[in-house]
Design goal:
The complex is a heterodimer of chains A (about 280) and B (about 400).
Chain A: H1 2-30, H2 37-54, H3 59-80, H4 89-111, E1 125-128, E2 132-135, H5 136-158, H6 160-170, H7 172-177, H8 182-204, H9 215-229, H10 234-254, H11 260-274
Antiparallel strand pairs in A: 1-2
Helix pairs in contact in A: 1-5, 1-8, 1-9, 1-10, 2-3, 2-4, 2-8, 2-9, 3-8, 5-6, 5-8, 9-10, 9-11, 10-11
Chain B: H1 2-25, E1 27-34, H2 41-60, E2 68-75, H3 80-92, E3 99-101, H4 105-118, E4 122-124, H5 131-134, E5 140-143, H6 147-161, E6 166-172, H7 175-190, E7 194-200, H8 208-217, E8 221-225, H9 229-240, E9 248-251, H10 262-266, E10 274-277, H11 287-300, H12 308-326, H13 331-339, E11 343-345, E12 348-350, E13 363-364, E14 369-374, E15 377-382
Parallel strand pairs in B: 1-2, 1-3, 3-4, 4-5, 5-13, 6-7, 6-8, 8-9, 9-10
Antiparallel strand pairs in B: 10-14, 11-12, 14-15
The chains are: A mainly alpha (about 280), B alpha/beta (about 400).
Chain lengths: ~280, ~400
């Protein structure tokens, strides 16, 4: 049981981290909590299902197209909706909450109540050191998640765009004085955050088929990870995701699987009691 | 001139309101509660299909009390608070005379309290938890499976018949899941079948750790009381972990294994999975079942899959029959009429139990089938009288 719980905890943790990264980025740079994050994750799953299953595109092309479309949609959402709410965090919260409800109902209307799943990239399972069988698709998802996380890290640390993002997250006014166009940067950041939700969606939807209301649980887990790790912290997201993944799996394995998600909340409460800003709170992006 | 115009508008308004009142009086309204959103939104779709066929059928056969039957639907989303308020809206806003439906036991348990308080007859179609009828409420009836009925009359008998020696029960943490899990444990213990239980989350997606526990027990059969998409995850992941088909999985609810996306979601791992159902085209108990299937195919261009469309169809017919026999929409008269029901529907002859003290009170249990997917064909395994084939293990 221990090796499986450890492996699955790490794999699921990486995926949690990926899902949370977009939330963290948008919070860190724009101070906006995107309640529709889960629904954009679901949208990417639907897109990749449509492109791969209905249009017959190669799964990789379908995934990239889905992420690209959600990135564009994210920018449109920022321009048309989020931009009007700057200066009042509560408005953006309410607006994205309403957006999530609208999207859920739109999915129900368009895609129906049944779950949809794009084709697996890798079928079958691997025998791990003779201890247990593990789904190949999960291993591939973990690998893809690590690649995306590494790309985000390198982008933040090594590129001009990343430096602008970090500068803006540290001090918006100073960044503006140094020539950063924060209006355009907000649009790109929100689109980028949505694209990260989409990346998690296309990677995970072959394992966990998407449903109209499936984004709620995704967003909830992402928020738990972000708060646990510390709002707006890159490493907070990664470590937070791994902690939640491991706690849930060991809790389910050794205590009760009927309360898998409760263990994550308990850890969150404990950490917040000790460190109110989260594990990596107050650290820069 | 102005005065004349005002009087004309007043008279026209009266005529308009009068005609509206007449039109409203020409229908008898009944309510349906069920999930149209949430994790079991597919049930709402099945309910809508069944309601359409049932109202067409009833209205084509003279309607109700000489009037047309009208159905008002309230979405409960599987949530007890929405269920209770939706039920209350149907009664107080829409003036329905009887309420039918529901698919989630936790929602139905909230609704029966409202039915009892408002004194409105409620016919539960597809919520299985025993306490729904075991509370012995005067206004609550169930024309559908109960947990104890499904376990004792079908699942436990099938497990013994197939000669399974070790069973694993997977129960989602809902009123339905926990209730049927406990009843299964008791029935299997009584039958001498070794068993263990694991409780899983209703909205759980990842079942790997549970499956590892199950694999360590090495069961012959897994009785999975997991509803909705969760069942698809469970079947696919059990296949990945090489647990099934060595251990045969029984979907203890049925519909998720019949949903159109089942094969897309579970792939080849769905082969040899078993399910509990009250519908199979080769085992139609009444002529009305055949008529239902024909009408369904004519209306929707495909064969019915989720049997809940048939459950609600039957419930509408039962309600219409009771209203016609009562000759009134008075609630107490309807309860009397329902208690004297003797009606043939798609799933057999309906009559409600009237002995208080257990879940059999106001309960009619339709016969259930155990079906196995064999190369994407449904083969009836149990009861033996209706069997169209035998269990395949590998």
């Amino acid at each position: 049981m221990f090796p499986l719980a450890l492996t699955n905890g790490l794999v699921i943790g990486i995926i949690y981290a990926l899902a949370a990264l977009g939330v963290s980025l948008v919070v860190g740079i724009m101070n906006v909590v995107n309640f529709a994050h889960g629904e954009l994750y679901i949208l990417a799953g639907y897109f990749s299902y449509l492109f791969a299953d209905t249009l017959g595109m190669h799964y990789l092309a379908a995934m990239l197209a889905a992420v690209g479309l959600v990135f564009l949609l994210g920018m449109v959402i920022e321009v048309l909706l989020i931009r009007k709410t700057y200066g009042n965090d509560l408005y953006s919260l309410i607006l994205t909450f309403i957006l999530s409800i609208v999207l859920q109902n739109a999915y129900l209307l368009i895609f129906g109540p049944y779950p949809n799943k794009p084709p697996n990239w890798l079928k079958g399972a691997t025998n791990v050191f003779g201890l247990f069988y593990y789904g190949n698709q999960r291993l591939a998802a973990c690998g893809a998640g690590l690649v995306v996380i590494a790309i985000v890290y390198l982008m933040l640390k090594k590129t001009w765009f990343g430096r602008m993002l970090r500068a803006t997250s540290q001090d918006r006014e100073v960044a503006e004085l140094n020539g950063v166009n924060t209006t355009a940067l907000n649009m790109l950041s929100f689109g980028f955050g949505c694209a990260l939700a989409a990346a998690a969606g296309v990677i995970l939807s072959p394992i966990f088929p998407v449903t109209p209301t499936g984004g709620v649980a995704v967003a909830l887990t992402a928020f738990v990870v972000v708060v646990l790790g510390g709002m707006g912290s890159f490493w907070g997201c990664v470590v937070g995701g791994l902690v939640i993944g491991l706690v849930e799996n060991f809790g389910a394995a050794y205590i009760s699987s009927g309360y898998r998600h409760v263990f994550g909340f308990i850890i969150l409460i404990v950490v917040l009691l000790v460190r109110p800003a989260g594990l990596f709170g107050n650290r820069e992006l | 001139m102005k005065k004349r115009l005002a009087s004309m508008i007043f008279v026209m308004l009266l005529i308009f309101l009068g005609s509206f009142g007449l039109a409203a009086a020409e229908t008898v309204k009944i309510g349906v509660v069920g999930p149209r959103t949430g994790t079991a939104a597919a049930t709402g779709k099945s309910f809508t299909e069944g309601i359409k066929l049932a109202t067409d059928y009833v209205n084509a056969h003279g309607g109700v009390l000489g009037k047309q039957l009208e159905v008002v639907f309230e979405d409960t989303a599987g949530s007890p608070d929405k269920a209770a308020s939706g039920f209350e809206r149907l009664v107080t806003r829409d003036n329905v005379v009887v309420v039918l439906g529901e698919s989630h036991s936790s929602a139905a348990l909230a609704e029966i309290e409202v039915a009892n308080r408002l004194k409105v007859p409620f016919i539960v179609a597809e919520a299985w938890a025993d306490p729904i009828t075991a509370k012995n409420y005067k206004y609550v009836f169930r024309a559908g499976p109960s947990n104890s009925g499904v376990v004792n009359e079908t699942i436990a008998q099938w497990v013994v018949h197939e000669g399974f020696k070790k069973a694993y029960i997977v129960a989602e943490n809902t009123d339905w899941g926990l209730g049927i899990g406990k009843l299964c444990e008791a029935a299997l213990n009584a039958a001498g079948v070794a068993n263990q239980t694991v409780v899983t989350e209703r909205k759980g997606q990842d079942h790997y750790t549970e499956l590892a526990k199950i694999k360590a027990f090495n069961p012959d059969v897994i009785l999975a009381f997991v509803y909705g998409t969760g069942l698809h995850y469970f079947v696919a992941q059990a296949g990945e972990m090489q647990l099934s088909p060595h251990a045969i999985i029984l979907d203890g609810a049925g519909p998720p294994s019949l949903w159109p996306d089942f094969w897309n979601n579970v792939g080849d791992y769905g082969n040899l999975e078993c399910l509990v159902s009250s519908m199979h085209k080769d085992v139609e108990l009444t002529q009305l079942a055949t008529l239902f299937r024909q009408n369904y195919e004519k209306e929707f261009g495909t064969a019915p899959t989720d049997y809940k469309s048939r459950s609600i169809f039957d419930a509408v017919l039962i309600a219409a029959d009771a209203i016609n026999r009562a000759g009134t929409t008075n609630a107490d008269a309807l309860v009397d009429a329902l208690e004297k029901t003797s009606l043939t529907v798609t799933r057999g002859q309906v009559s409600f139990g009237t002995t208080k003290g257990g879940p059999e009170y106001h309960q009619w249990m339709p016969p259930m089938l155990v079906i196995q997917w064999q190369d994407k064909n449904q083969v009836v395994l149990y009861p033996l009288a209706g069997a169209t084939g035998s269990l395949k293990r590998k």
